Amino acid sequence: MASIITLLCMGVCVYAWGITTADDNPIPRAENVHWTSLDFTTILTWTVKPSDYTYTVLYAMDDGDWTESPDCSQISESVCDLTEHLKPLDRIYHADIKTEPAAAASVDYTREFPHTYSLQFNPYRESNISAVFFTLEDEDESTVIVNITDPVTSIHEHGKQLSIRDILKKDLKYKISYCKSGSTRKRDIVSDSSRTKILGLDAGQSYCIMVAAFIPSRPKATQQGAWSTQLCTEGHTNILQELSLGAWIGAVFILLIVLIIIITVTVLCCRCHQRNEHLQNSQSSAPV
Ligand SMILES: *[C@@H]1O[C@H](CO)[C@@H](O)[C@H](O)[C@H]1NC(C)=O
Ligand SMILES: *[C@@H]1O[C@H](CO)[C@@H](O)[C@H](O)[C@H]1NC(C)=O
Questions:
Q1: How remote is the CA of residue 1 from the centroid of ligand 1, in Å?
Q2: Could you give the number of structural domains in the chain?
Q3: Of the residues 34, 36, 220, which should be mutated to test ligand 1's pocket, given the most ligand atoms within 8 Å of the CB?
Q4: Which structural domain range is residue 231 located in?
Q5: Ligand 1 neighbour 226 (Cβ under 6 A)
Q6: Is residue 210 part of a domain?
Q7: Is residue 119 located within the same domain as residue 137?
Q8: Do the bridges between strand 152-157 and strand 143-149 make them parallel or antiparallel, or are there none, so unpaired?
Q9: pLDDT in tens, 173-210
Q10: Residues 152 and 224 occupy one common structural domain
């Protein structure tokens, strides 16, 4: 029994020794390779153990040939902006990060240099959309106009900076969520255009409104952009609606009193007048 345990121990020791010598001076590989994309600016990031090695990024479209990124060749950073190379946007891209010796290093070329593949990425379908800015304009008592500014991207075409509308075209909708201020009952509408009306609002009420880009043609997880900050309408409150019941009763009471006074005064005046006339008449008819 004891000999078996000794043998097992020796086996473990030999195995452990084998591991330590093989990993004595490991060449680091890129780890946690991750796509980050906002408004179609797409960046590849990864983590590395500190070392003298550099990294070169290659990319491929639709399982095509690998191309080396000119901006990310033998870099020591662990981030690479691939926005300019991922065109057309609505394709599937892969990236591969190769570890390479620093240019000046003496290299043992008998050793294999590791590399790490990224997951696939489609910028058109997976890029996050940032929160939008918008303004509100009152059209009439029950209608408010929502005017949304399409976020701009870092992509240029023919010298023009493209907005997300230029890229997504008809696929871009906006989700508009609104509720009476103070209430939590939200209503959502989806608009095809960047300028839209909310109809059927209660006159004089203040409403609070939020907007997010919405792309129903995308997979569920990436359909909706970030919510904007909330804007509220003023709700030009009519003074007559603002009055409480007590105030109404008070006002009616005062009106009644004023009316009674007017009637009384009128009646009294009329009587005086009539009496005067009567007097005058009797005087004039009297014989001189
Ligand atoms: C999009 O945003 C979500 C939530 O913030 C994040 O988890 C995801 O990694 C982002 N995707 C890209 C491609 O940047
Ligand atoms: C909508 O807002 C944009 C700026 O965000 C502005 O340039 C444009 O004139 C507005 N549209 C109207 C009709 O007011």
A1: 57
A2: 2
A3: 36
A4: 133-236
A5: no
A6: yes
A7: no
A8: unpaired
A9: 999 999 998 888 999 999 999 999 999 999 889 999 99
A10: yes
